[in-house]
C-alpha cells in the first residue's frame, strides 16, 4: 500500500471509529434512534462496512426491545428481540468471514485497518449477544412462578448470574464499546445486589447481608446518570431506606424501572421483618407509616378489621433457621437458642401487631405449628378451631415465613374481603407481584 493509500486508510479508520464510538455512547444512554442515525452518516460504501451498518442497526433495535422488556412479554418463538439479535449475530459472523477473506488476499488495498477494527468489534459483540440470550432465559425463569417457587430458585438464579458475569463480562473490550459495556456491568451489579438481598431475607435469613446489599443498590441509584434528575429540574435527593425521590427522574427503560420496583418490594419486606428493631428507633413508626407502603397497608387492615393478632411467624425447625437475624439483629445466644426448643420458641414472631404476649400465644401455638407445616401454595388458607373459637388466615411467604391473622370469634366465618386483602399483602411480601408483572404498570 502506498503512503497516500495508507493515509487515506488511517483517515477512514479514524472517521468511522468516531461514528462507532458515538453510536455506542448513544446506545449506552438508551438513545436508540439517535444511535442508528449516527451510524448511517458514514460515507464508507464497502461491502464489509454495509454489513456492519446493518448489524449495528439490528443490534440497536434488539437492545431497545431488551431494555424495554419486550422479550419477556412474548412467547419464545415470536420474540422480536430474539430475531433482531439473531440478524445482528449472523451479520457479525459474516463480517468475520469477509475480513478473513480480505486479509488472505494479498492484493487487497481496501482499508485494512478499518477491517481489522470491525473484525475485533464483531467478535466482541457476538459474545455480548450470546450473553443477552442467556439473560433473556434468566429473566424468563424469574418470571415463571412455578420455577421461582422451587426451593433455592433465587439462589440458583444468583449462581447462574455470577457464572455469566465471569464468562462474558470479564473479558477486555475495545474502548469503542466501553460505554455500552458499562451499561451491561450496571445491569449485572444491580441484579446481583437485588437477588442477594432477596436470598438473604428469604433463604439465608441474614438481614445484615441484606443491609449491605441495600447499601450497594443505594450507591448505584445515587451515582449513575440514568437514575439522576435532568439538568432542567432540581437535583434528585439521595435515596435512603425511608426516603423518596421528590424530583422528576430521567426517562428510564422498563428494565431499569423494574429494578426500582424490585428494590422497593425488598425494602417493604426488609422493613417488616426488621420491624421490632426499627420500632426502637425514635419516631420510626411515623416514618414507616409514611414511607413504607406495606407497613401502612398492614396497619390500615388491622385498624379496619381489628383482628386479635396479625404477624409473621418464623419456622425455626427448618435447617438453616439458626442463621436468622431479626429482632435486635440476632438471638441473644444463638447457639443455645437452636437447642432444646419447643412450643413458642420453635415458632417465634418476627413481626406482630399488637405486640405479642406469650400468654396470648400459648393456647394457639399448637395450631400455628400444625398450620405453618401444611404444604400449600401462595394462597390464603383459612382454618377455624371450634374449641378455641378462633379463625386463622395464613399465607406462606417463603419456606421460613408465614403471614398469619387471628380472629377470636364465636362461629366459623371465612371473610372473603379479609382473605383478599391478605392475598394482596402476601403477594407483595413474597415478590409475586414484582416478578409477575415485569412489563406491566411501569411508569
UniProtKB/TrEMBL annotation:
Domain of life: Eukaryota
InterPro entries, per the entry: C12orf66-like_central_sf, KICS_2
Residue stretches in coiled coil: none
Stored Gene3D superfamilies: 1.10.3450.30
Transmembrane feature ranges: none
Swiss-Prot/TrEMBL GO biological process terms: cellular response to amino acid starvation; cellular response to glucose starvation; negative regulation of TORC1 signaling; protein localization to lysosome
A Pfam family per the record: C12orf66_like
Listed PANTHER family: KICSTOR COMPLEX PROTEIN C12ORF66 (PTHR31581), KICSTOR SUBUNIT 2 (PTHR31581:SF1)
Protein name: Uncharacterized protein
Species of origin: Brachionus calyciflorus
Amino acid at each position: 500500500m502506498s503512503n497516500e493509500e495508507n493515509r487515506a486508510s488511517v483517515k477512514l479508520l479514524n472517521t468511522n471509529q468516531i461514528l462507532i464510538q458515538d453510536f455506542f455512547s448513544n446506545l449506552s444512554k438508551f438513545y436508540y434512534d439517535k444511535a442508528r442515525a449516527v451510524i448511517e452518516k458514514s460515507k464508507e460504501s464497502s461491502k464489509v462496512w454495509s454489513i456492519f451498518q446493518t448489524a449495528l442497526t439490528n443490534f440497536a433495535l434488539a437492545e431497545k426491545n431488551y431494555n424495554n422488556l419486550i422479550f419477556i412479554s412474548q412467547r419464545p418463538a415470536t420474540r422480536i428481540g430474539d430475531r433482531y439479535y439473531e440478524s445482528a449475530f449472523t451479520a457479525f459472523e459474516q463480517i468475520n468471514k469477509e475480513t478473513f477473506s480480505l486479509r488472505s488476499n494479498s492484493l487487497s488495498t481496501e482499508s485494512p485497518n478499518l477491517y481489522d477494527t470491525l473484525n475485533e468489534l464483531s467478535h466482541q459483540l457476538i459474545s455480548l449477544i450470546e450473553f443477552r440470550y442467556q439473560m433473556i432465559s434468566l429473566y424468563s425463569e424469574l418470571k415463571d412462578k412455578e420455577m421461582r417457587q422451587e426451593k433455592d430458585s433465587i439462589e440458583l438464579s444468583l449462581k447462574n448470574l455470577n457464572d455469566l458475569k465471569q464468562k462474558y463480562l470479564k473479558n477486555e473490550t475495545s474502548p469503542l464499546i466501553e460505554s455500552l459495556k458499562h451499561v451491561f456491568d450496571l445491569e449485572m451489579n444491580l441484579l446481583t445486589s437485588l437477588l442477594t438481598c432477596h436470598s438473604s431475607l428469604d433463604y439465608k435469613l441474614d438481614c445484615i447481608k441484606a443491609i449491605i446489599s441495600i447499601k450497594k443498590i443505594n450507591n448505584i441509584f445515587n451515582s449513575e446518570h440514568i437514575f439522576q434528575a435532568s439538568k432542567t429540574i432540581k437535583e434528585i435527593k439521595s435515596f435512603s431506606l425511608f426516603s423518596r425521590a421528590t424530583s422528576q427522574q430521567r426517562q428510564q427503560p422498563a428494565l431499569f424501572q423494574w429494578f426500582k420496583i424490585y428494590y422497593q418490594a425488598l425494602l417493604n419486606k426488609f422493613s417488616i421483618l426488621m420491624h421490632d428493631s426499627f420500632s426502637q428507633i425514635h419516631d420510626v413508626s411515623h416514618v414507616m407509616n409514611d414511607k413504607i407502603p406495606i407497613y401502612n397497608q398492614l396497619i390500615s387492615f388491622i385498624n379496619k378489621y381489628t383482628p386479635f393478632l396479625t404477624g409473621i411467624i418464623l419456622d425455626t425447625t427448618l435447617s438453616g433457621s439458626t442463621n436468622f437475624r431479626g429482632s435486635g439483629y440476632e438471638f441473644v445466644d444463638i447457639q443455645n437458642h437452636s437447642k432444646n426448643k419447643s412450643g413458642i420458641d420453635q415458632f417465634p414472631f418476627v413481626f406482630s401487631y399488637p405486640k405479642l404476649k406469650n400468654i396470648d400465644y400459648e393456647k394457639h401455638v399448637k395450631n400455628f405449628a400444625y398450620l405453618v407445616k401444611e404444604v400449600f401454595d401462595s394462597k390464603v388458607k383459612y382454618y377455624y378451631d371450634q374449641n378455641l373459637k378462633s379463625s386463622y388466615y395464613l399465607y406462606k411467604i417463603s419456606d421460613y415465613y408465614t403471614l398469619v391473622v387471628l380472629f377470636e370469634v364465636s362461629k366459623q366465618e371465612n371473610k372473603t374481603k379479609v382473605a383478599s386483602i391478605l392475598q394482596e399483602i402476601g403477594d407483595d411480601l413474597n415478590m409475586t407481584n414484582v416478578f409477575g408483572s415485569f412489563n406491566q404498570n411501569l411508569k
